[in-house]
Amino acid sequence: MNDKGTSVAKSKIEEFSQEESRLADIAKALSHPARIKILKILSEMDVCMCGEIVDLLPLAQATVSQHLKELKRVGLIQGDIEGPKTCYCINTNSINEAYSQIQNYFDTINKECKRSCKTNKK
Amino acid sequence: MNDKGTSVAKSKIEEFSQEESRLADIAKALSHPARIKILKILSEMDVCMCGEIVDLLPLAQATVSQHLKELKRVGLIQGDIEGPKTCYCINTNSINEAYSQIQNYFDTINKECKRSCKTNKK
DNA sequence: TTTCTTTATCGTATAATTGCGATGAACGAT
DNA sequence: ATCGTTCATCGCAATTATACGATAAAGAAA
Predict the structure, then answer these.
(1) Which range has the worst mean pLDDT, A21-25, A71-75, A100-104, B78-82?
(2) How far is the C-alpha of B15 from the C-alpha of A117, rounded, in Å?
(3) Which of B6, B41, B46 should we substitute to test contact with A (largest number of A Cβ atoms within 10 Å)?
(4) Which domain holds residue B42?
(5) Which residues of chain B have a CB within 8 Å of the CB of A33?
């Protein structure tokens, strides 16, 4: 107890780590079925016009354009303007980097789970 | 062209697949640094009281409780009430299931990318 | 019983996301 | 130059997420 009658908390952290924030940001980009599907479509087509993607999704063109923008924001795809069209494709390096980050996260969790189980439940 | 002067679109899909929705839902649960950190904390502690988690995050107790609820919603953790306390722990099965789903998704994308590159750019 | 501790939930405020029609910019085709 | 196509952006509405103080419930401790 301290002088205010409240329990003494261990000092709280001020913010999240860069790794945690980046991972959350990647997850956010993947947190909508439309964006999950867009990446799948792009992987199958290599490159792809925006209009083709629109036709494969149950969403309006303006909405699809927004989802593409979000995927571009985190770097998972890139869009090159070709005249009136825009040619989208997967950024392979960025996808692999994101996947590594995710794998590292889950692998660490699994390893820690096993370790702490042994320690605590001996 | 059709009679309305617009280009004939291939029939649009009505909704997203269950797999796409589930994957997006998992990603949504991981789309906040607090929830990324909570899973890491739980993996290190095996089991953990809510209060301990609160002390390790830069957030109020009510907010942390909400994040725990979201993780519970998608099944990644479980919380067992022990008297006035609640004991949280990772749901190992659910985490592994989620990880498999994610791995399958990224592996498919990578495979398709290589295939379509060969096909299109021969 | 009364008090303390712990945690979920309520209420509320603010911000972010999602979705779409309308518009405009850029370009090719006529 | 005019028209048609393609796509990003704007403006708006509706929904959802985030955050936190206050409160309530449930039990432990006194």
Answers:
(1) B78-82
(2) 42
(3) B46
(4) 18-102
(5) 16-17, 20-21, 23-24
Nearest CA to CA, how far is B94 from chain A (Å)? Answer: 12
A31 in any annotated domain: yes
- Does residue B30 fall inside a structural domain? yes
How many domains, in total, are found in chain A? 1
Name the token pair of B41.
Answer: 């904390």
Q: How far is B85 from chain A (nearest CA, A)?
A: 15
Q: What are phi and psi of A49, to 5 degrees?
A: -75, 155
pLDDT at residue B94, as a whole number? 97
**Residue A114 clears pLDDT 50, i.e. is over it:** yes
Distance of alpha carbon A103 from alpha carbon B60, whole angstroms: 30
Helix (H, G, I), strand (E, B) or coil at B82: strand
- d(Cα B87, Cα B79) in Å, to the nearest integer? 5
> Is residue B112 assigned to a domain?
no
For residue A79, which phi and psi values (nearest 5 degrees)? -125, 125
pLDDT at A48: 86
Q: Residue B53: give its domain's CATH number.
A: 1.10.10.10
Report pLDDT for B104. 98
Q: Do β-strands B85-90 and B47-49 pair in parallel, antiparallel, or remain unpaired? A: antiparallel
CA–CA separation, B32 and B67 (whole Å): 9
User: Please, which pLDDT band fits residue B47 given cuts at 50, 70 and 90?
Assistant: confident
Nucleotides of D under 7 A from a protein CB: 4-11, 17-22, 25-28
CB contact under 8 A, A120 and B47: yes
